[in-house]
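Open question from group meeting: does this chain pack into something compact, or does most of it stay loose? Before anyone orders reagents, we agreed to write out a predicted structure and look at it together. Recording both the input and the output here so the notebook holds the full record.
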Amino acid sequence: MVDSVFLNHYLKFFYSTGEIIKYQAGSNNLRNLKFNDYLSIPIPLPPLPTQRAIVTRIETLFAELDKAAVHLRTAQQQLKTYRQAVLNHWLNNEEGKWEMVKLGNIADVNTGSTPKRGNKDYWENGNIPWITSGETNNPYITKATEFITTKAIAETNCKIIAKGSLVIAMYGEGKTRGKCAELSIDATTNQALASITFTDSRMYKNFAKWFFEKNYEDMRMLSSGGVQPNLNLGIIKNMILPLPPLAEQQRIVNEIESRLSQATASETYIENALQQAEALRQSILKKAFSGELV
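Structure tokens returned:
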């Protein structure tokens, strides 16, 4: 006899090991598992009381992991709240003491394009980094996965953006839209990114970068469109930014970074702990089905 919960745990574990692929029919790109394929999967079958003891032990340990994960995610959310509170406090112009300026008046704001994929002259042996909106999920863009040629630069709307410029994702899947990152390399971009190169020496780039992070949710709300709302170059250019004296901008940035450095370290620790918890689940199942758990 087989305990159904025991079987369910084992099949999940078996699938996670990747061994399931040996029992799937079809090509690598389109595999499927038919009923008869399930019947050929080998299943360890200790006596029923042992199966139930294994299930009890698995679920006890999983419950402890679930409890720990809840605490970690709560702490994760509290850190996000703290981060936003710090940005709101230091970038607040409630008293109206700072000059407010339109982004388009203090920076060159541009977008790029996607050279025709069918034109090999634009892509083959290219050596100019070409960035897409997905890269903004990291605070700094240090490399590209695709490259275009000098001919693409000459014949399309792609322009080389100097390193140190900021880029904002105008559209993208999930949380990408509204994200801001800094170019650590000279690069070109596709049409989904707005590049920002400050031309007014009164604006401290890091101050603007923190301002964009503070206003991430507000920027997303400015998006227009139907099913997939987007930002556009006009919206970005018309954004209003505070412009305190340069020395005050630098002081504010130092205050923000001092307070958020520990929060960032804690966020990294929590993310690693959550990944370790998931790895521990797999370790528990491995021990369970190799006879080491009970």
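Observations to bring back to the group:
The chain has a mean pLDDT of 90.
The chain is about 45% helix and 15% strand.
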